[in-house]
Amino acid sequence: MIPRRIPMIEKRTHTLINEAFCGTVVELTPSASIVELVTTEDMAVDDHGLIHGGFIFSLADHAAMVAINHPNVVLGAANVKFLHPVKAGDRIVANARVVKVDGKKHVVTVDVQRDDEIVFSGEFTCFIPVMHVLT
Prior knowledge:
The protein is mainly beta and 135 residues long. It has helices spanning 19-22, 53-68; strands at 24-29, 32-38, 74-82, 91-102, 105-114, 117-127.
């Protein structure tokens, strides 16, 4: 028997994000997302092609925000681990899942993988204010 896939829901947050640097949403379901990024030479910090950790963090943060999928969601804190280096040309995939909701506070776990290897793992504490933080 083939498992039934939940249809992807509409993305309601971070709609103007630069996907070239922060990843493209490939799956979005209630309280979970999968976002992928193909790294480029523009993200490298040296002649070996090592990717700056900020791009990996940005991918994971984007996945966390999309898993919550509220227009006003903001990041409050993050506890992350960079487990393996990533190099230019690698395709990395962030899997995010909301694990706890307490009022406006949402906790999201995110693992970033290259093939079967987890290269980054983190817990993101996010908040949904009543109004956009800039209004």
